[in-house]
Amino acid sequence: MKALITGASSGIGRDLARILSKKGYDLVLVARNKNAMENLKKKLGTNNIDIISMDLSNIENVKELHNKLKTENIDILINNAGFGLIGTFSKTELDKELSMIDLNVKALHILTKLFLNDFVKRNSGYILNVASSSAFQPGPLMATYYSTKAYVYHLTLAIYEELKQMKSNVHISCLCPGPVNTNFNNVAKCEFKIKALSSEYVANYAIDKMFKNKLVIIPGLKMKLVYIFGRFIPTKLKLKITYNIQYRKQK
Q1: DSSP 3-state helix, strand, coil percentages of the chain (rounded to 5)?
Q2: pLDDT of residue 170 exceeding 90
Q3: Which of 4, 64, 148, 223 has its CA 20 to 30 A from that of 81?
Q4: φ/ψ of residue 218, rounded to 5
Q5: Edge-to-edge strands of the sheet including 76-79?
Q6: Which pLDDT score is estimated for 227?
Q7: 3-state secondary structure 107-161
């Protein structure tokens, strides 16, 4: 059994690797930070761990990754790589936003599509796409990031129904956590004003629910309630609330 995890050098991706290693999975870890993955490899008990240092915001690298692994019989694909950026849309850096779209959307889209085709042919496999609770509403002051996660969320749901109609044994899930203690804050240049979940808890919860074929995985009671009650809040009020939350998060 083998799992491919992108964004595996830290945070949720790192802890997903630890959990699957304990379950006996061979691993393919992908991220830009090779040293962090090497250190992780030393701590894991899995015998077969391949490390690939790669920038997945480069679309040609993404295609190369699948081409390299398509004969490896990957059983689980976890699309975890991604980053965020906070700031007023008219002032944030365009090139950084385009890189975010390349990584959060394009890379995930390509890997999901190519490995899904492999999984469907052999009628087995799991895909876990890591989105965010931000997927459920627009995000003023993090407009691009929220939009990328909405893409991940809706793409995953659509594929789920297609697989269901095909009566396929391939399973796809979408992880939508709220605030998590990871390096995300430093990259996005923001800080959470509410208590964040540990990445270990989120990773354990995600793997458990993925194997139970849960479609939308929302760790933590607080975020589940936000998701439920958020559907009844008028759009303009929701926008104002989200803006105020993001405003307070800015460093």
Answers
A1: 55, 15, 30
A2: yes
A3: 223
A4: -120, 100
A5: 49-53, 26-31, 2-6, 76-79, 125-130, 170-175, 216-217
A6: 81
A7: HHHHHHHHHHHHHHHHCCEEEEEECCHHHHCCCCCCHHHHHHHHHHHHHHHHHHH
Look at residue 189 in the predicted model and tell me its pLDDT. Answer: 54
Burial of 201 (0-12, 13-18, 19+ CB in 10 A): middle
pLDDT tens profile 197-233: 999 999 999 999 999 999 999 999 988 998 888 888 8
User: CA torsion, points 9, 14, 20, 23, in degrees to nearest 10?
Assistant: 120
DSSP result, 218-239: --SHHHHHHHHHHTTS-HHHHH
> Would the pLDDT of 145 be above 90?
yes
Options 3.40.50.150, 3.40.190.10, 1.10.3210.10, 3.40.50.720; CATH for 2-249 is: 3.40.50.720
245 close to 199: Cβ distance less than 8 angstroms? no
- Residue 194 pLDDT grade (very low, low, confident, very high; cuts 50, 70, 90): low
pLDDT of 251 reads: 61
Please state, in angstroms and rounded to a whole number, the distance separating the CA atoms of residues 251 and 86: 9
Taking each helix axis from N to C end, the angle separating 199-211 and 11-22, rounded to the nearest 10 degrees, works out to 50
Domain boundaries, the chain: 2-249
